[in-house]
Amino acid sequence: MEARDAIAGALVGSDGEEQAAQEAPKAEKTPTKSKMEQLFGFKREDLSSWQSLVALLNRPTDPACLGIFRCLFGMLMAIDITQERGLSHLDYKYLDGAPVCRFPLFNFLQPLPMDWMYLVYMVMFLGALGIMLGCFYRLSCLMFISTYWYIFFLDKTAWNNHSYLYGLIGFQLTLMDGNRYWSIDGLRRPSIRNAHVPLWNYTLLRTQIFLVYFIAGIKKLDADWVEGYSMSYLAHHWLFDPFKVILPVEVVSLLVVHGGGLVLDLTAGYLLFFDATRPYAFFFVSYFHCMNSQLFSIGMFSYTMLATSPLFCYPDWPRRFFGHFPTFLKPVLPFTSPDSQTSTSCAYPESQSTSREQQETPAVPKAPKLRFKHKLRAVFAIVYIIEQLFLPYSHFITQGYNNWTNGLYGYSWDMMVHSRSHQHVKITYKDGKTGEIGYLNPGVFTQSKRWKDHGDMLKQYATCLHQFLPRYNISDPEIYFDIWVSINERFQQRIFDPRVDIVRAEWSPFKPNPWLMPLLVDLSPWRNKFQEIEGSLDNQTEIVFIADFPGLHLENFVSEDLGNTSIHVLQGQVSVEVVEEKKNHTLQPGEQMQVPAGAYHKVYTVSEGPSCYMYIYVNTTEAALQENFTKLFELQERVRNGTETEPLPPELQPLIAAADGDDAEVNATDPIVRLFLKRQRRMKEVKKRREAGVLERLERFAVKKYYTIRRGFLMSAIAMRNLAVGLPPLEQLTREVAFANMKEPQAEANQDERLKDEVGHGEL
Known about the structure:
Blueprint: H1 3-7, H2 18-23, H3 35-40, H4 50-57, E1 60-61, H5 64-82, H6 90-93, H7 114-133, H8 137-154, H9 161-175, H10 184-188, E2 197-198, H11 199-219, H12 223-226, H13 241-244, H14 249-273, H15 278-295, H16 301-308, H17 317-322, H18 372-390, E3 420-430, E4 437-440, H19 455-468, E5 478-487, E6 493-494, H20 526-535, E7 541-548, E8 553-558, E9 562-571, E10 574-578, E11 583-587, E12 592-594, E13 599-605, E14 611-619, H21 620-641, H22 654-659, H23 671-690, H24 694-725, H25 730-740, H26 745-749, H27 755-759
Antiparallel strand pairs: 1-2, 3-4, 3-5, 5-6, 7-14, 8-13, 9-12, 9-14, 10-11, 10-13
Pfam family, one: HTTM
Domain HTTM-like: 58-317
Keywords: Acetylation, Disulfide bond, Endoplasmic reticulum, Lyase, Membrane, Transmembrane, Transmembrane helix
């Protein structure tokens, strides 16, 4: 039997027997395979001993599927570098000489000077390009993963599961024979062209993707996900409109978003594994990832996961697929010949001489001769899989990272299981010498927002502020944080103790965080009551649910925009102090009181247990603005229909021009009319974009990506020139950067300010 036929049915991942049977020589009988071999692609005997397992993992396998995946992964990473990795905005991310607080995984890691960071990114890009082309493959993989992990460790604020997955796959490909099929290396070195790869190459990748799905499903067995609180807002997205035709939005959230996501993650790996269920898995997995690409800003993750699905197919599927293409395209397409070369990376069964009588019966090949490298690679594959099974549940080791999430959140595959909202963030500093107390704008000296949710980043941020504030005559400052967070639609509550100076607070990755306030899970049943309360309010009334710990208090300022603001106690006992009036009011459950607008008040929790209360308020400024908008719209409709008989005053004359389709915003003198016309123009633009055809959307997407990628490479070229010959005159550098910053004319014309900033929404 030919080598390829001998291995076709022995691939971990049910590589199938029909294909091998069809391609076997007709004169040779295909041996009957056991049920286990038909389902899993290997026999029970292959697991009976260490020698058999090593032989199985090093069994020669078709390199075609691995080669296509290598090409797709390299291409997607090359695109990802310009986007999510940040090449297009690198100069904004790494500001040379600016006082910026950073959040590396290890504190000793620091970014290089700007031009050198561009060089790091170019090395990473060239590595990804080399992986895609299979050119100097090992070197390209090393170039990619060394720079990738450096950038990944350099910024924890960008740390997430899918970025971690890219690094893992890059590491795996470095040790695999991914350049044996459709690669430039194969053209340079005919000895490796179309050569077998060992089975563990596929086993590792398949297991990795299986774990991504399955463990993500295990993590979704959390009560918050099962009960529909983790991602309830997704049901309002237009992608779920077809489901909302027959189901209420609440049912869509519970059954489709949460139930569907849970079932898919738990079953996707199994469905992809088996031949009978793989077509259905392809459909649902592809639909799932296409939806995710529209729901979330997750870069190339959806497309990378789509690229991993064919790994579960027969390894020779590219040969059969490209075999259907016209003959004149064959020179530029991958090999379609079923014959592969032998490879020293694989373990082949030893041939044995047989007599003429023995040749009439099927020959039983001898066990392959295993070398030390085969055993070493088998050990690596097994250890790697065990490590990937262990890491998502290793949070008992990294206890210092547990901040209402599971440890080092970026390697747990607990994707999208937590949604957060922040109501109140206050940073207080105290001068260590004078005792002077002041407040800092949240986010000062940093571009990130994730420090608000993670104690390790909060510690780094406080240490950084401690270093920068002395420049502003604040000596030896103490830093206190008062941060209120709601996780999965619970009460807004403190996540860190506001009485602790974080600069001097202890933190260790291996010990529990002592100044982390516990999540009030006992109050989770209140979420059902929240929906009832919110449903009883009108559209103009807003509500915020608060929970606080005994002995602490909330200091709050009610904006003048917020009228009729009241506090309603739900549980526990609170004392409300109106600062200007110097009066305290004690409230029991079921009681309420008005708090004045434009003034500070403090809410003390005086009960033995946590207190729960809610703010109910109306944004009177916005309500009045909406009322004016309604009147102006009705007036404009009457002008358009010719039913308005009264002449319009001068300040309303622009409405006539707008009704005729002219852009009269420039002529509007009344601020309300100007804002009304601007909002109308914006709504018209949004409607036009939503109703655009497929070709127009594709063109808009392509143009946007072009200018993004264009900026990244032009800025990289400037940096390479600076490293090579030095900085040019400032005027020349300014012109070059301005040219790189050029945007498409349509985008420049649509740079409207956000309406929210103009309206001046008040926040509680």
